[in-house]
Amino acid sequence: MAEAAAVVAHQFDDAEQQRDSVSLGMWLFLIQEIMFFGGLFLGYTVYRYKYSEAFRIGSNELELAWGGINTVVLIFSSLTMALAVHAAQLGKRKAIVAWLLATILLGSVFLGIKGIEYTHKFEHHLVPGPGFHYEGSHARQVQLFFSFYFVMTGMHALHMVIGVGLLAVLVWMAQAGKFDSAYYSPVEMTGLYWHFVDIVWIFLFPLLYLLGRDR
Amino acid sequence: MASETTIEQALPRKHYLNASYGVKSWLLTTDHKRIALLYLMTVTVFFLLGGAFAVMVRLELLTPAGDLMDSETYNKMFTMHGVMMVFFFLIPAIPAVLGNFLIPIMVGARDLAFPRINLLSWYVFVLGGTFAFGAMLAGGVDTGWTFYTPYSTTYANTYVIATAFGAFFAGFSSILTGLNFIVTIHKMRAPGLTWFRLPLFVWAHYATSVIQVLGTPVIAIAIVLLAVERVFRIGIFDPALGGDPVLFQHLFWFYSHPAVYIMILPSMGVISELICCFSRKKVFGYHFIAFSSVGIALLGFLVWGHHMFVSGQSVFAGMIFSVLSMLVAIPSAVKVFNWTATMYRGSISYQAPMLYAMGFLGLFTIGGLTGLFLATLAVDVHLHDTYFIIAHFHYIMVGGTIMGYLGGIHYWWPKISGRLYPDMWARFSALVIFVGFNLTFFPQFVLGYMGMPRRYHAYPEEFQVLNVMSSAGASILGVGYLIPLVYLLWSLRYGQPAGPNPWGAKGLEWLTPSPPPTFNFDETPEVTEEAYEYQKDYEKQRGKEAPVG
Amino acid sequence: MILQSQLPLFPEQASSIARQVDYLYFFLVGISAILSVGIFSTVFYFALRYRRKSEDEIPKPIHGSTLLEITWSVTPLVVTMILFVWGAALYYRMTNAPPNAMQINVVGKQWMWKIQHPTGRREINELHVPVGQPVKLNMISEDVIHSFYIPAFRVKQDVLPGPEYSSVWFEATRTGAYHLFCTEYCGTKHSGMIGKVVVMEPADFEQWLSGVPTGETMEQAGERLFVQYNCNTCHNTSSGARGPLLDGLFGSTVKLTGGGTAVMNEGYVRESILRPAVKIVAGYRPVMPTFQGQISEEAILQLMAYIKSLKAPEGGARKGGEK
Questions:
Q1: Of the candidates C215, C230, C264, which is a domain's last residue?
Q2: Do C258 and A138 touch (CB under 8 A)?
Q3: Which residues have CB under 8 Å from C138's CB, separation 6+?
Q4: Which CATH number goes with the domain that contains A99?
Q5: Residue A149 falls within a domain, yes or no?
Q6: Is A71 on the interface with B (CB under 8 A)?
Q7: Does B234 touch chain A (CB under 8 A)?
Q8: Chain A within 8 Å of B246 (Cβ-Cβ)?
Q9: Neighboring chain B residues of A25 at a CB cutoff of 8 Å
Q10: This prediction's pTM
Q11: Does residue B541 sit at the C interface (CB-CB below 8 Å)?
């Protein structure tokens, strides 16, 4: 397969500088995302400690099966993403598209399952706000748990939606033959982003679903 | 290099301003210089808005009674003054205007690492400003720029969320700018331009960018949680619903303290450039100034609790924050000493930028020293939430940041516009600003120790004399700020062409034409000398090796 | 200090620590004056002395001096550490009330201060205290964060709407009336939430305290409320009582359901009244109703005074509610 010359943007001296810069830029962005989610984790931890009983109840209300499936789905999607990056490095157009589509599919499955979970929460009146209703003591604090649940998983889901969007753009670019061994940064960087979103879930899942679980 | 002002200059034929015409060529530009000008226009608008609110505040405070406007309106005035000035002027101004324009040129690059993200950052900034300004038009917000809970989550019936999201988007813009600068400075320096040959302006922006990237996300989360609580009545911060109001303060100040270093560090970077140029000397203690910038950025993340000494924070925590706050003062002091030492045995000229720089030295010193009063626990108990605090931060923000900003605008105006402005008018306004500023804010130190609380619409009569002095000063200060608008705009049409280096300064930006071409350099420069290397010219002049002093 | 009355630079010193705070403040002013005058005059002098004499003038380069850098790093470090230690030591005294302090309760609400003395006497926007007697204020807000500030005493503390009470203490040293300000922005009439602290000779204070017939002390009011709100129907001595007996419990550590312990302090008692389900004593079911919205902060403070007064039952005989 003939190697296309890397497309070097005008501000960069050469492809290596472009690659290095884009990589550093993405890492910085991810560090910033860690600080963002970190604030949420801090708030959650403070209230987990303060209202341990209510948060335990909240954790038990979450659907472990769906959460577990989602975790597996997301880990697999990181695998398909890594394979997409690998294919891009080798310039294998069909493989890139295939693995990217697989990642999109798995990401969509994740979002779909989250949709199912959210719907169940809505049906059980566990969505914070005027519709919230919980029988039993600690109702207020259980609502607080679910506020954190929805904000944290909601933020995460938002990042996944953005990720799926980026992947769709990549599919289009890959289909047009833009990636090869000289130029595959966009795939690699999106891969970094996707892995990060995966790692956030790896932390979210035990914190929200597993801590204090009865069984 | 010897000054070339004696030679008649002409504008270059093609440069970044006339490279293309039309609104689209500006609104869709990726040229960092044009983006800098877009920011310049936007932050100037926000500065004037914030200033208008300040005028209303100072007018009301001429008399002890709240007789000019009702309390709700007054509370909105000081809130919106703070919101506009902090989020839409002080944080973006120097980095987004001067940093954007100069950093690529100073490192010898054609543009920043991510020009499109640069443009995006401006649009996000404008979006934030639209939210905030829209909230103000719709009726305003009255929580104070600090949005303390539970007032802001449960009790305020003003446009809290809209304003807070204005700040959110301004913050996102700030993150993108910082990210761009870090990558550019790391990866795109010209050959020969090692870290320790960089202008201190670049070091200062590097340190600022680290804070922007690490700190801003935390206030983003604080704002999101604030909005969630306000809309859904959840008890994250409202104790009546089981929340903790002090948790909000921790999240808020964890960003907002480093934010003040985002505001001052770039200004310090400007001052380094100005003092060197107008003393015609290499800066004294380059390494110490560079490292102190990074030191301030890092230490600045560890002191946020000094805003909360009387909030219910533990005494032990208070002590830790107090000692750390003392430590963060040291690098700033070191810089002031180094700048002053740079002037020693220099060759000093008094053009407007230098007047701003010298004013900075005095005013920032006072501002920084009064910070020590507040880091001292027993004294802060008395001074917290009084006019002393207001005086302290205005000395730093206005006496520090804005003096640096104006000094930088005047210094690089010839480079940015290709024109010279009338220096006499510029010196005059610098002096007016200096006098007006001190008259406005020095009395407020006294008012604070006397016990006058901040954010007060009406006050006891015994505070009137000092308040009148302060308002009088504010009117002078306001005039001082308006004069540059006039002559700088005038210079765009009638100012003398500047030439590449009207000040005879060192630095890559002075090797390019004024205004520079779109891609800054015809060929990537190669750097062979240290920053501020006036020594070579000294040697050339003397025709011999200069003794190293 | 005639000049002081023409153009006052600091408030009256009317508390035991006011003078100490002022000394530290003057020290800070002194250092600041020396340093700022120093920098200003040095900059000014250099600007004049080394002004540019000709267009081509280039001065001799001076690179730096590590010795100088160390000197002017270490010296400010020493000065700031002195400030820190001095300030922290004084702050420690300011935050530790002496054990014999007279406790007065303060409830802040938009936009007034409601004060209640233990004897039952109440005031609004005024606080009467005797001179020479340590006073500790126990403070809570009904709505947003306020802050209780007496400039003449140099004391201030934020008043939170929970979860904890906050406190501040002082000992007034001069009779007179002094400003009281709310100093945490709290909404529309923040600048109207002001009043005065009136310091009286002890005898006058006693007279003032008993001047207006109040009917009942805080403890008596609390006892009345305890019955009025049916607290006694669960918190009593009968076997199978639905709530723990409160006699002698205040200040002790209790075990909670779900593990963990809590100290039964003011914050805990208040939380139990407003949000009973959060911390339940081990062995009891979560049946206590919430009184949020039904009981005012002052009433909570009165109940608190009553509960604090309940002594542990002696021997085997249990006496309910005897003081």
A1: C215
A2: no
A3: C103, C104, C105, C106, C165, C167, C266, C301
A4: 1.20.120.80
A5: yes
A6: no
A7: yes
A8: no
A9: 113-114, 179-180, 183
A10: 0.93
A11: yes
pLDDT at C220 over 80: yes
> If chain B, 549 residues long, is cut into consecutive pieces of 10 residues, what is the mean pLDDT of each piece?
54 89 94 97 97 97 94 96 98 98 97 97 98 96 96 95 97 97 97 96 98 96 95 89 92 97 98 96 94 96 97 95 97 96 94 97 97 97 97 97 98 97 97 97 97 96 96 97 97 94 94 94 90 84 60
Q: B235 and A42 in contact by Cβ < 8 A?
A: no
Extended beta strands in chain C, E state: 102-109, 112-116, 122-124, 126-130, 134-141, 146-150, 155-159, 166-171, 176-182, 194-200, 253-255, 261-263
Tell whether C142 is covered by a domain: yes
Reported as half-sphere exposure (CB side, CA atoms, 13 A), residue B142 has a value of: 22
- pLDDT of C7 reads 63
Residue A198 has pLDDT above 90, yes or no: yes
Q: Which two tokens stand for residue C8?
A: 């006052």
Give the SS3 label for residue B1: coil
Judgement on whether residues C200 and C232 belong to the same structural domain of the protein? no
Rounded to an integer, the average pLDDT of C194-205 is 96
Residue C91, both tokens: 């702050």
Closest-approach residue (CA) in chain A for C257: A53
What DSSP character marks residue C268?
H
Residues C156, B381: contact at Cβ < 8 Å? yes
Give a yes or no: residue B26 inside a domain. no
User: How would DSSP label each residue in B420-483?
Assistant: ---HHHHHHHHHHHHHHHHHHHHHHHHHHHHTPBSS-SS--GGGHHHHHHHHHHHHHHHHHHHH
CA distance C161 to chain A (A): 17
B288 and C157 in contact by Cβ < 8 A? Answer: no
Q: Residues B250, B252, B258, CA angle at the centre, nearest 5°?
A: 100
Number of domains in chain B: 1
Q: Which residue has the higher pLDDT, C206 or C60?
A: C206
**Chain A (116-155) residues lying within 8 Å, Cβ to Cβ, of chain C:** 137-141
List all chains that touch chain A, counting a touch as 3 or more CB pairs closer than 8 Å: B, C
Longest CA–CA span in chain C (Å) reads 102
Domain boundary residue, one of C215, C241, C261? C215
Q: Which domain holds residue C198?
A: 1-52+97-215
CATH number of the domain to which B342 belongs = 1.20.210.10
Share of chain B residues as helix, strand and coil, in percent rounded to the nearest 5: 70, 0, 30
Look up the domain containing A108 and give its range. Answer: 2-210
- How confident is the model over A128-167, as pLDDT tens digits? 888 888 887 778 889 999 999 999 999 999 999 999 999 9
Task: Name chain C contacts of A139, Cβ cutoff 8 Å.
Answer: 277
**Separation between Cα atoms, residue B194 and residue B190, nearest integer Å:** 9
Residue C58 lies in a domain: no
Is beta strand C176-182 parallel, antiparallel or unpaired with respect to C122-124? unpaired
Q: Please return the burial class of C107, using the count of CB atoms within 10 Å of its CB with bins 0-12, 13-18 and 19+.
A: buried
CA dihedral B343, B345, B350, B353 (to 10 degrees): -30
Q: Is B470 exposed, middle or buried (0-12, 13-18, 19+ CB in 10 A)?
A: buried
The predicted structure's pLDDT at residue B71: 95
Q: Is the dihedral of CA B70, B71, B75, B76 positive or negative?
A: negative
Specify the long-range contacts of residues C287-291, CB closer than 8 Å, at least 24 apart: C287/C234, C287/C242, C288/C234, C288/C242, C288/C243, C291/C229
In a domain, A215, yes or no: no
Nearest CA in chain C to A138: C277
For residue C193, give both structure tokens.
């939430």
Residue A124 falls within a domain, yes or no?
Answer: yes
Alpha helices in B61-190 (DSSP H): 71-85, 100-106, 115-138, 160-187
CATH of the domain at C244: 1.10.760.10
User: B188, A46: Cβ pair inside 8 Å?
Assistant: no
Gap between the Cα atoms of A150 and A128, Å rounded: 9
